[in-house]
Amino acid sequence: IGSVAGTISTLGYKYILELLKKVRIHDTCGVHNLHGMPGVLSGLAGIVVASMPWRSYYHENLTDKCLSGGEHRTPGAQAGYQCAGLLLTLAMATVGGLVTGIVLRLPIFASPDNDSYFDDSLNWHVPQDFVAEDSALGSLIKNLLPNNIQLHEPPKQDANTIELVHENIPKQSMEAMARYSTQSATLPLSDLKNDRTQSTSLDESIQRL
């Protein structure tokens, strides 16, 4: 039973969870697959076990530990009660979920914004330095801190700086740099030395800026 329950739970995470999303049934924590479906399996197993009428189905010294069918109940009647209990549980869960969904859609129970979903400070006492990076407060702190550098963002280029670099670089050095990058494989050795000297002066000009 445990192996089958684990298989059902795993397959539910793989396939049923995507199906629930398509019909707009939100199961953010996977409760349906982790507890719901294995619970239904255990209910079915209870029906089968309760319907076993012969004590020979149980091992030795286990008959006294097994639950009996109740007063004046046959094994078949007890299995029927087990089935009724399972159906009643499913009905209560379905009706309770529908009522909860209807109540939560009322305007007085408006859902929070997306930035506050995982902000624990709204409902619990948390340490002062505990701030969720994706929360609204975390985003505000990121914007207020001037030294908070985002490493994944490319550095911003200033147009004035680029123009200043072009103005201070000799035209001859720029031409040598372009010629060196495109024709270095075919130039004579003497020209390569001159181009490298001009490229060195180009690097020095940039460093002085």
What would your notes on this structure say?
Helix content is 59%, strand content 0%. The protein has 209 residues and is mainly alpha-helical. The chain folds into three domains: 2-110, no CATH class; 112-156, no CATH class; 159-208. Helix 1 (2-22) crosses helix 2 and helix 6 crosses helix 7 (189-208).
By DSSP, the count of extended strands is 0
Helix content: 55-70%
Low-confidence stretches: 148-152
Q: Please identify the oligomeric state.
A: single chain
**H/E element string?**
HHHHHHH
| Count of separate DSSP helical elements | 7
Radius of gyration: 37 Å
Distance between the termini: 75 Å
Q: Please report which band the strand proportion falls in: under 5%, 5-15%, 15-25%, 25-35%, 35-45% or over 45%.
A: under 5%
Average pLDDT number: 70
Summing up helix and strand content along with how strands pair, one would put the structural category as mainly alpha
Q: What can be said about the biggest beta sheet?
A: none
Give the overall silhouette: elongated
Number of domains: 3
What labels would you give this structure?
NH4_transpt_AmtB-like_dom, 209 residues, mainly alpha, Ammonium transporter AmtB-like domain-containing protein, transmembrane, 7 helices, ammonium channel activity, elongated, 59% helix
Please render the helix and strand layout as text.
Blueprint: H1 2-22, H2 31-50, H3 75-104, H4 136-144, H5 159-168, H6 171-183, H7 189-208
Membrane topology: Multi-pass membrane protein
Pfam family, one: Ammonium_transp
GO molecular function: ammonium channel activity
